[in-house]
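Entry 12.
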Amino acid sequence: MGDSDPIPYETTPIGRPAGRKPILTGTVVVRESAEDLLDSIAADLLFQAKSCVRTFGDFHLALSGGSTPEPFYRRLMYDPNYRDLPWKRTHLWLVDERRVPFDDDRSNYKMIYETLVVQSDIPKDQVHPIPATLDDADTRYEAELKEHLAWREKGHDRLDFVVLGMGEDGHTASLFPRSPALHANGRLVMINRGPTVTPPERVTMTFDLLNASRALAILVTGEKKRAAVGRVAAAVAGKEAAAAEDLPVLGLRPVGGELRWYLDGPACPPAL
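Predicted 3D structure (tokens):
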């Protein structure tokens, strides 16, 4: 992915008609079951992690919260196929966070910490939670990102692998339709607030930061997401007038990186 070696992973849907594979921006990986899909994204993550550690000496991974990726994080911990993930050389970042304390059940960090951090051997000083309750949470986190990525030479100072999801309204990260953070104006991290943001307020990475990443992985599972995937596919095909303002996931367009969708069968809409 990006300027590291291309991931040698087969992306033809298994056990489903070719016409059911939606046309989306980037590469589309379809697996009939969510379990098989997790193997696909996990294999790609492992390849990218090893490649980046070999090339740069470290690996910068950004994770999203929510119920969709939680089984993926658990898979990384218990499946022996992924024991070689180089956690000791990994910096772990959060894509977004609700403005709640770390011990709040709504906290993305709480889920990621309990599911992944305490189960792995990642050094604690390489885990970077968002200080979401602070007034300057966004500027603090942006400065922390810049400080750690600056150790790499110019052009390689970016996130290596970002795990994203998509809501039924087409939002990704905490970039909600018609919300202020859709307009970053050069900012890498912003506090997103207002009537179009699902409460509570959020701190989120912006398109400027996400699109500069080496690899964006959008994990979408379940029948509830089928309509949203269909809207995105229709917009990409020019059959529906939609922009990132209304379907924020359309704003994911990596510059010098790669975008991959990971879909299970139930999330795939009928062929357009």
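Annotation: Confidence is low (pLDDT under 50) at residues 4-19. Strands lie at 27-31, 59-63, 90-94, 96-98, 127-128, 161-164, 189-192, 202-205, 215-220, 258-264.
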